[in-house]
Amino acid sequence: MFQTIYAWLLFTWGGLHRYFGNMNNIRHEHERAVHYFSRAYQVDPSFYQARLARAVILWRELRRYPEALADLNALLAEQPAYAPALLNRAMVYQENGRYPEARADLQAYLQLPDAEYAAEAERILLLLRDIDQ
Question: What is the distance between the alpha carbons of residues 69 and 72, in angstroms, rounded to a whole number?
Fold first, then answer.
């Protein structure tokens, strides 16, 4: 139980660093967030949300796409139906011009019962189909 609480504390601390980095456009704060998200995941390897948060900040704020893809691929290798990882991997693929892979991930995402952002995913999927034609 202590391990879980400690992981959540690290995760929360990482979230604060991400917030300050976003509010003030400070790269160092984003790097600190990655550090704390990484630590949270190390403390509790079942804490997928921490690894997902690390992947998201790596691609959105830091533009470190290979590292973000490695995290998302690892998450999906462990949990193939992890909707947030599937959607975010599609976004990374899209941003890098890998439209077929992005479409495949969005289609898989839309098949999941917990596809919280289905409307947005469908809209992006339509746009990607238009781009590829």
Answer: 5
Q: Are residues 84 and 29 in the same domain?
A: no
Q: Are residues 106 and 133 in the same domain?
A: yes
d(CA 85, CA 105): 10
Q: What is the pTM of this model?
A: 0.91
DSSP-based helix, strand, coil % in the chain, nearest 5: 80, 0, 20
Q: Is residue 71 part of a domain?
A: no
Q: Are 82 and 47 in contact (CB under 8 A)?
A: no
**What are the φ/ψ torsions at residue 70 (nearest 5 degrees)?**
-60, -45
Residue 133: what pLDDT? Answer: 61
User: How does 122-132 read in b/e, with b if 16+ C-beta sit within 10 Å?
Assistant: eebbeebeeee
